[in-house]
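Re: weekly structure request thread

Next one in the queue (170 aa):
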Amino acid sequence: MKTDVDLEPFDSTNRQATIFSKESRMSKVTPFLWFNGQAEEAARFYTSIFENSRIDSVSPMSATFHLDGQKLMALNGGPQFKFTKAISFFVSCDRQAEVDELWEKLSSGGTKQRCGWLKDKFGVSWQIIPSILGEMLQDEDHEKSGRVMQAMLQMSKIDIARLKQAYESQ
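Done, posted below.
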């Protein structure tokens, strides 16, 4: 494995060596979103919602930004393609307050859907899910996990207290 000092310059014809930070190497996979002229607006919207987020660059054709450490790219590609539920962003939340805040902010101008799903004002699908839901659904007691699943299926925004109530009921 190469270290920072072992890295080759990105452009060998460039006299100035390019040093890549650990952050830029964190992941080889970067979500790439196709917008119809709204790339910068979307980047600004998303970075205003998530902590530890920033816009890295904006041009008339694209925007590059980070949401809580995850790099994303947005392109002003035109109206040819639309977002579908086939791809969504899954956001794991630790507390109900975080679920509530993200649910309200991301669904503003969009649509609230079932089971923690929503579409934002750009048509991008999000799943706002408390981490405890996965723990309860994976419980070895199938009756408990089944009750949790049934409770979740009745919800739009996920309610941790109602999940716990279903989990603990007899």
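Strands lie at 32-35, 54-58, 62-67, 70-76, 88-93, 111-112, 117-119, 125-130. The mean pLDDT is 88.
Next request, please.
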